[in-house]
Write a structure and sequence with these properties.
The protein is α/β, with parallel strands linked by helices and about 375 residues long. About 35% of the residues lie in helices and about 20% in strands. The protein contains 13 helices and twelve strands.
Length: about 375
C-alpha cells in the first residue's frame, strides 16, 4: 500500500508552506485635490501595505490605512510597531492556511487592533489564493457577479457650483449613487442637497454622511430639513458612542440611519441591532479588520434584516479588490457602496501594475489569483516614506 502525501494537492501545491517574513511598506499617496470631511481636510493618504512572504517564494499582500477620526487613532509607526513587535512572532513559521487560528491569536495578543489585523488577514487570503492559483471569491464560495456597481463621494466644496461640477463629473462617468458630506455648515448642507436634487432629479440616489461630527439636536434639525430631498440613508450623524441617540434619530427622522464609525466588531454591531439604532451598516477593510471579520459582520447584518453598505477609507486597488471580492461572492444584493473612492479619482495615483478603474459606475471583479492585482515596485519606491 502506497502512503498518501497529504501535504500536497492533486495540482502540485505543497501545503507544508510556512510563513517566513512579514514586510511592511509605509506610503504617502497624494489626493488628486484636498479631500474634506467634517473631521479634517486631507492632502494625502497614509497607507500601509503588508507583504507576507513564505518559504516557497509565494507572498500575499494586504492594505490598511492610518485614517484618524472618531473610532481610529492609528498612525503608520504604530501600525508597523504592532505588526513587527507583536504579530510577526505569532506568524513566523506557521502555515498561511491557518487563517482562523492566526487571526484569533492576533486579536488575543492585541484586542480590537483591527486596523493592523486587516492587512495581515487580507494578505493571508491573497497568499492562499495565489498559492492555489484561484481568486479570493473562489475561496469565499464562488463568484455570483462579474461587476459591482459603486457609489461616489462628494467631498466638501467651497461653493454649490463646485459641488455640482464634481457631481456632474461622476454622473457623466456612469455613477448614479452619490454620497454628500455634511456636518460643518447646516445651511450649506441644505443648499447642496437641494441643488443636487434640482440638477439630477430622481436620476440619482442621494445619501448624506456627517462622519459622526454633529450633536443630537443639530443632527435631528438638519435631517428633518433634508427629508424632502429623498435621502436614501443618513450615515453616522452623531458620535460613535451615542447609540441611544442614533436609535432616537431612527425613530424620529423620516430617512434610514446608517451606522459606520459606531460599528467596529460584531459586539458593537449587536448593540446597534438590539437598540434598532440603524437599518444600514457600512463596513470598511481597515476599520473592521478585513475579509476575516467583515464576513461575520455581513452575516449578522443580513440576519437582522439590515442593508449592507460595502465601504472603504480612500484606498488603492488592493483594498478595493478586497471588498469587490466579498461583494462578488455574496449571493444576496449589497448596496452600491463607496469602497472604490480612491480608484474613482480621489487618489492621484495607484500602486499596482493593473489599477482597478470604474466603467459606467461599476468596477470589474478580478479573476486573477488572490486579489488579482500586482504591486508596482516603482510606485512603491516613489511613495514610500521612511519611519
Amino acid at each position: 500500500m502506497t502512503d498518501i502525501d497529504v501535504t500536497r494537492t492533486d495540482f502540485g501545491a505543497d501545503l507544508s508552506v510556512k510563513i517566513r517574513e512579514i514586510e511592511t511598506i509605509p506610503l504617502h499617496l497624494p489626493f488628486g485635490s484636498p479631500f474634506q470631511i467634517s473631521a479634517a481636510t486631507r492632502d494625502f493618504l497614509e497607507v500601509l501595505i503588508v507583504r507576507i512572504h513564505t518559504d516557497q517564494g509565494v507572498y500575499g499582500i494586504g492594505e490598511t490605512q492610518a485614517w484618524r477620526r472618531q473610532g481610529s487613532a492609528e498612525t503608520l509607526p504604530n501600525l508597523m510597531r504592532s505588526i513587527h513587535d507583536q504579530f510577526a512572532p505569532l506568524l513566523i513559521g506557521r502555515s498561511p492556511f491557518e487563517v482562523n487560528a492566526v487571526m484569533h491569536d492576533l486579536n488575543a495578543c492585541l484586542y480590537n487592533s483591527l486596523y493592523a489585523q486587516a492587512a495581515i488577514g487580507d494578505a493571508l487570503y491573497d497568499l492562499i489564493g495565489k498559492f492555489l492559483n484561484v481568486p479570493i471569491h473562489t475561496l469565499l464560495g464562488g463568484k455570483c457577479r462579474d461587476r459591482v456597481r459603486v457609489g461616489a463621494v462628494l467631498s466638501m466644496k467651497p461653493t454649490v457650483e463646485a459641488l455640482l461640477d464634481s457631481a456632474q463629473g461622476f454622473y457623466d462617468r456612469g455613477f448614479r449613487h452619490l454620497g454628500l458630506k455634511i456636518g460643518i455648515d447646516p445651511a450649506a448642507d441644505l443648499r447642496n442637497a437641494a441643488a443636487l436634487r434640482e440638477q439630477f432629479g430622481d436620476d440619482i440616489v442621494l445619501r448624506v454622511d456627517a462622519n459622526a461630527g454633529m450633536n443630537f439636536d443639530a443632527a435631528q434639525r438638519l435631517l428633518r430639513k433634508l427629508e424632502p430631498y429623498d435621502i436614501d440613508a443618513a450615515e453616522q450623524p452623531i458620535a460613535i458612542w451615542d447609540i441611544d441617540g442614533m436609535a432616537e434619530l431612527a425613530r424620529t427622522v423620516d430617512m434610514p440611519i446608517m451606522a459606520d464609525e459606531s460599528v467596529s466588531t460584531d459586539h458593537s454591531l449587536l448593540e446597534v441591532i438590539r437598540k434598532r439604532a440603524a437599518t444600514v451598516v457600512q463596513t470598511k477593510t481597515a476599520k473592521n479588520g478585513g475579509i476575516h471579520y467583515i464576513r461575520n459582520l455581513w452575516a449578522l447584518a443580513k440576519a437582522a434584516g439590515m442593508r449592507i453598505y460595502p465601504g472603504n477609507h480612500p484606498s488603492t486597488s488592493v483594498a478595493t479588490s478586497s471588498v469587490a471580492q466579498m461583494c462578488a461572492a455574496s449571493p444576496e444584493p449589497v448596496m452600491e457602496g463607496v469602497f472604490a473612492v480612491g480608484v474613482s479619482g480621489a487618489l492621484a495615483d495607484d500602486i499596482v501594475e493593473n489599477p482597478i478603474r470604474p466603467i459606467d459606475g461599476e468596477i470589474p471583479v478580478l479573476d486573477g489569483p488572490g486579489f488579482g492585482v500586482t504591486l508596482d515596485e516603482d510606485k512603491l519606491e516613489k511613495y514610500r516614506i521612511e519611519i
